[in-house]
Amino acid sequence: MEFHKNKPIYLQIVDVISQRIVSKEWKEETKIPTVKELAKELEVNHNTLMRSLELLQSEDILMSKRGVGLFLTKDSYKNALELMRRSFYENQVPEFFSTMNSLKITLGELIDLYKSNKRANESSLI
């Protein structure tokens, strides 16, 4: 996996796992791959991965069943979505608004662009 320099690797791993949950690639209350399998797949150090998994457990997205492995919680989808939203609001939105201001993009222009993009996406689903 290729990581960005501007964000800690363990948080990028949290993003990857959260995305798998929100996209429903991983289903609630199911077992996830082992730490060894995930570390190999993501090409990361075991300790870095453990830090990510501990954060996901503290957010009630993952739970450990002693001797069995890690499982998604029954609320993993909702909690992962909330975690992703919080991260988006805290990290990407301020930079986005700063860029908007620098480029003199108005909120009206942004709303028009959003509506146009939404219509294009809806028509491509038909």
List keywords for this structure.
126 residues; mainly alpha; 5 helices; 2 strands; 63% helix; globular; transcription regulation; DNA-binding transcription factor activity; WH-like_DNA-bd_sf; DNA binding
Would you write up a description of this structure?
By secondary structure, the protein is mainly α. It has a domain at 9-77: Arc Repressor Mutant, subunit A. The chain has helices spanning 9-22, 35-42, 46-58, 76-102, 107-124, and strands at residues 62-65, 69-72. The protein has a two-stranded antiparallel ribbon with strand order 1-2. Residues 7-75 form the HTH gntR-type domain. Keywords: DNA-binding, Transcription, Transcription regulation. It comes from Dysgonomonas alginatilytica. This is DNA-binding transcriptional regulator YhcF (GntR family).
In short:
With 126 residues, the chain is mainly alpha-helical.
Question: What is the rounded distance between the termini?
Answer: 33 Å
| Number of contiguous helices | 5
Number of strands: 2
CATH class of the domain at 9-77: Mainly Alpha
> How many strands, what sense, and barrel or not for the largest sheet?
2 strands, antiparallel
What percentage of amino acids are in beta strands?
Answer: 5-15%
| General shape | globular
Domain HTH gntR-type: 7-75
Keywords: DNA-binding, Transcription, Transcription regulation
Pfam families: GntR
GO molecular function, one term: DNA binding
